[in-house]
Amino acid sequence: MNKTPVVEHRTVEEARRDILTAFQRLPAERIALHEALGRVLAEDIRAPHDVPPFRNSAMDGYAVQAADVQHATPDQPVFLRVVATIAAGGTPTRPLRAGEAMRIMTGAPVPEGADAVVRFEETSDTWAPEERPPEQVAILNPVRPGDNVREAGEDVRQGTVVLPAGTRLTPAGLGVLASLGFPEVPCVRQPRVGILATGDELVQPGEPLAPGKIRNSNEYVNAALVRRAGGIPVPLGIARDTVEALTGKVHEALALGVDMLITSAGVSVGDYDFVKHVLAAEGEMHFWQVSIKPGKPLAFGLLRAPDGRSVPLLGLPGNPVAAYVAFEVFARPAIRKMAGLTPILRPTIKARLQEDVRNSGRRHYMRARVWRDAESGELRVSTKGDSLRVQGSGILSALVWANAFAIIPETTAHVPAGTWIEVELLDVPEHALPLIDPTVAQYEA
């Protein structure tokens, strides 16, 4: 066995910087429009034609020349001869002349010569059938040129960049692309992330829980976090605590073509933490103690794939909460960078702490809950849940309660109640970020 790898000390910023420099945005792939919701455009999308492509009616009514009806009133209507009906999908057969009207449906092309549409509700169509003039329509109110007419290119002009590269596709964005005739679009490929749990003590859900065994929760948490971050999880199951088992799982991940491998456990200083040795043999690895709580032990490096690729690996701690925090701080921004998603970091705000907090010399990501006080309107944050042990690195249920991390700096030993502190929000959709803090700074790499 190789000698024990050297363990280096890193700040959170140093570790995140070194990790993110190893990741780049993945190449593009073409995605069918029905499958593209939430994906990131890899290229600018230019409009190949105007939307709408022709001048059309915004209402069911009558196409007219506005000058003909400028003096129309309910008491003195203007009568126009009805010369045609234009349905949506149809086309006018001739121009409209003075003194004429054409019955027209919403979306139908406005005929040449017409400059406005009068709604049915403002014509003799509202009269009793026996009162309506034959082959004519009575216009009861005037219209101005352009009323109820949608001009060609009113929505999108031909040649304009309608959706720039980096746009995350929403239902409305997909509608715009469909209106422009795109059956598929170039999107940044979603990263495939291998998920590997390690340890002889682990059993899968559904298996008997023998003495000394625990459930493999990290695999399911990490796979869900990968999916929520914009990646595709590739679960690899459990690697037992032998060099052969770990090596086999690493080779399996590389053979599956993953873009990143995430392991949990085995990167600390225990007698059976073989992950460090296996990873050191399979690539260029760094083993760190990061000034973060929970989650001090962390491994990062590049594995050598058979096809010559260098595949980043991030080794997370084994304790469930420590693994969750380390994922959020280090793995999530890397996945989002590969997927072309921005911002890559979660937003932070300031909130007033509700109780005294003590710290032990590392940056503490305390599980917390944020709310807005009904009377003062202030944002408040508490680190106290239903259990006195809510901040333990094995108390996974605390993360069900939490909607944020209360961040206590490594330089601060004591924070009294009432202090405004930095809070990192969890599960905030990108479109809501400006509503929270439009000036929030994002890490760029």
What is the second-level CATH architecture of the largest domain? 3-Layer(aba) Sandwich
CATH level-1 class of the largest domain? Alpha Beta
Give the rounded overall mean pLDDT: 90
| Number of separate domains | 4
* Overall outline: elongated
Question: What is the β-strand count?
Answer: 28
User: What profile does the largest beta sheet have?
Assistant: 7 strands, mixed
CATH superfamily of the largest domain: MoaB/Mog-like domain
Spatial separation of the terminal alpha carbons: 36 Å
Return the structural class. Answer: alpha/beta
Radius of gyration: 32 Å
Helix content: 10-25%
Read across the widest sheet, the strand sequence of neighbours is: 1-18-20-21-17-13-16
Q: And the CATH topology of the largest domain?
A: Molybdenum Cofactor Biosythetic Enzyme, Chain A
Organism: Ardenticatena maritima
Catalytic activity: adenylyl-molybdopterin + molybdate = Mo-molybdopterin + AMP + H(+)
Keywords: Magnesium, Metal-binding, Molybdenum, Molybdenum cofactor biosynthesis, Transferase
GO molecular function: metal ion binding; molybdopterin molybdotransferase activity
Write up this protein:
By secondary structure, this protein is α/β, with parallel strands linked by helices. The protein folds into four domains: about 5-25 and about 190-340, MoaB/Mog-like domain (Molybdenum Cofactor Biosythetic Enzyme, Chain A), CATH 3.40.980; about 30-50 and about 155-190, Alpha-Beta Complex (Molybdopterin biosynthesis moea protein, domain 2), CATH 3.90.105.10; about 55-150, Beta Complex (Molybdopterin biosynthesis moeA protein, domain 3); about 350-425, Beta Barrel (Beta-clip). Helices cover about 20% and strands about 30% of the residues. The chain is built from eight helices and 28 strands. The strands form eight sheets. It has a seven-stranded mixed β-sheet with strand order 1-18-20-21-17-13-16, with helices on both faces. A five-stranded mixed β-sheet has the order 8-5-7-6-9, with no helix packed on it. A five-stranded mixed barrel has the order 22-25-24-26-28. Helix 1 (about 10-20) crosses helix 6 (about 320-340), helix 3 runs parallel beside helix 6 (about 320-340) and helix 4 crosses helix 5. Mean pLDDT is about 90; it is low at about 440-445.
